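REVIEWER CHECKLIST
Item 1: Sequence provided? yes
Item 2: Single chain? yes
Item 3: Sequence as submitted:
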Amino acid sequence: MSAFSRIAQSPGLAVPVLLLWTLGWALASAEEPADDVRKGRALYVSQQCWQCHGHEGQGGVAGNRIAPTRYPYEAFARLVRFTNLMPAYSPKVLSDEQLRLIYAYVRSMPEPPPLEEIPELDFD
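Item 4: Structure as written out by the authors:
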C-alpha cells in the first residue's frame, strides 16, 4: 500500500500531512544561498547522482527526473533515505547536511522550457 493510500484511508493524518507539505514547499521556495548550491553541485557529482538522474537532474534510463524538485525537503530526504527505487543513502554514507546541500542544488535548477519553445524539436 502506498503512503498516499494510507493517508487517504486515515483522515486524521490528511490535514497534518497537507500542512507539512505546504509549509515545506513555502520554506523550500526561498532562494538557496549560492555557496550551498555550489557545494550541493559538488556533492551531486561526487556521490554519482548524475549517473542515474543526469547532469541537470533531467532523469534518464536508470533514474527519474529530480529537478527542479517541488518536494519539500522532508519528502526529498525520505525518498533518498528510505526507498526501494534506488540505492538508499543512509546518514552514514550521506550526512543530513550533505543531503540538504544536494537538495539546495536540485532546487536551484531552472524549469526547462516548454517543448514547443525548443527549436530543435520543431519538425514542421
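Item 5: Key structural point noted by reviewer: The chain has one domain: 8-110.
Item 6: Recommendation: ____
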